[in-house]
Amino acid sequence: MNYITELHRRFESEGVPFVYVSPSASILALDGVSASVLDHFTDGADLEEWVTGHDGDEEFKEQYEVFEGLVHQGLLKPEGELGPVAEALPPMPYPLTTLVLNVTNKCNLACTYCYEFGEDKLADALRKNGDARRSRMSAETARQSIDFLFENSTGRDQVNLTFFGGETLLNFETIRDAVLYAKERAAECGKRMGFALTTNATLLTDEIIEFLVEHRFGVNISIDGGGEEQDRHRTFKSGKGTYEEIAPRIQRLIAANSGVGQPIGARVTLTEGAASVRDTYQHLVGELGFDQVGFAPVTSAPGRDYALASASMDALLDDFRVLTEDYVEAALENKRHGFSNIEDLLRELHQGVNKAHPCGAGLGLLGVSTEGDLGLCHRFVESGEHEVGDVESGIDQEKRQQFLIDGHISNKAECQTCFARPHCSGGCYHEAQVRYGDASHPNVHHCDWVRAWTDLGLEAYGKIAVGNPAFLDRLDGDPGAPAGAVMEVEV
Ligand code: SF4
Ligand code: SF4
Questions:
Q1: In whole angstroms, what is the distance from residue 101 CA to residue 103 CA?
Q2: Is the pLDDT of residue 490 over 80?
Q3: Is 289 helix (H, G, I), strand (E, B) or coil?
Q4: Residue in 416, 421, 428 to alter for ligand 1 test, most ligand atoms within 8 A of Cβ
């Protein structure tokens, strides 16, 4: 019988050969014997032929044991045998862990690339019932959403509320009420409660800062870099840049939060012509004091002049390589580094995350519009096509389930032969909707990039595993956001 390898990626770090086994999302270090057995069967080889003539051969016995181990680990299989079937949907209705409340659909800025207000917006002007949309979520709708979250999170010890907009802080009143109410309800239900918020920081006041720190918010600030970089696209409606307005506010937040709250993160949207990510990183961490920085290329339909051209995506990969080297250097000295893209990827690799869906949208996470309509995630709220019920009458389970079936990795033909699929799983649904008019379509326009990025992550993982394996323990625990927290188009 012929044996052949399953989908995998071989790589080398610090002279040590490794293999990433895609069906199990595991990373194995290879020694000389396992590497040679793997070489032998990589293109398929007959087992009987390989075994013949080795009776009583002790050296071969060791090779055969390694062969059996590789079969057991799922890396070798009889040729023609189908690989393990990707898990079907988990038992439905799947309990929620996170609700993203879009507390307002208005913004005080006019960023040129904004998906909510630009050419790529999915929002419908009217609700399904024909009513005009409300610009702000009332405290009553927020409370109703919280009740809905507790009713639909059976079995979860912790649930999370994330506040989003428009510009989230335009409706701080509702946020404050919602947090206090959610804490009361959490105490009644015996659950832990987590809070997060995304903001452009223009409206941060000392009162708001105190509140965010007191309630241990995970704060994510949308900022593109230093003054020149930030003001290229992130402007007030008058056209005036925002950097001068936000820098001192951010520094006050970081100072008040230091040693008390959750790390404060910057989320940088990368557009054509952006500064090098290393310079941006150094400014945000070194000068403004952010704990973490995550970079996301702008997502848009093809042809927008702010979208990254493919040459810029190549340059971005080079920049990510440099920041990854900095991260590894810090890890080898047991130090933290705030490049969150690589940390998220390393955490997934370390934990063997193997996604059947790219993110938690529609699964453990739903978005809520200002009126209480439920969307697949915060980026789909107000899109009638992607509405899955409302907080008053509950989730449209049939529609939710159909979406999850369509978006399941086993239905993405292009991804079946891709070694990066445990991490990518076809990519962001919102990006797919904007690009292909179909949320369940795999984002095949960036496959080469995703694979090269995954290679970078594997290599970095191997370097840390060889040089300071104890550091990897820090990557245990919460795997980021496969089924819960807001996951913004991480690459
Ligand atoms: S979208 Fe592309 S990179 Fe992602 S899993 Fe599918 S084939 Fe791989
Ligand atoms: S990755 Fe895309 S679809 Fe998933 S939660 Fe984030 S924006 Fe929504």
A1: 5
A2: no
A3: coil
A4: 421
C-alpha neighbours within 13 Å on the C-beta side of residue 180: 8
Pocket test for ligand 1, best of 313, 411, 424 (most atoms within 8 A of CB): 424
Structure confidence at residue 482 (pLDDT)? 33
CA separation for the pair 16, 13 (Å, rounded) = 5
Contact status, residue 123 vs residue 116, Cβ threshold 8 Å: yes
Q: How far apart are CA 390 and CA 371, in angstroms?
A: 9
CA distance 272 to 297: 9
| DSSP 8-state secondary structure symbol assigned to residue 444 | G
CA of 455 to the centre of ligand 2 (A): 23
Could you tell me the pTM of the whole model? 0.92
What is the DSSP code string of 163-174? EESSSGGGGHHH
Whether 4 shows a pLDDT value over 50: the answer reads yes
d(CA 393, CA 144): 11
Which residues does residue 106 pair with via DSSP β-bridges, in sequence order? Answer: none
Look at ligand 2, atom 2, and give the residue with the nearest C-alpha: 428
What is the rounded CA–CA span in Å between residue 485 and residue 347? 15
| 104: Cβ contacts below 8 Å, ≥ 6 apart | 135, 136, 137, 165, 166, 167, 168, 170, 171, 370
Quick one: pLDDT at residue 107?
92
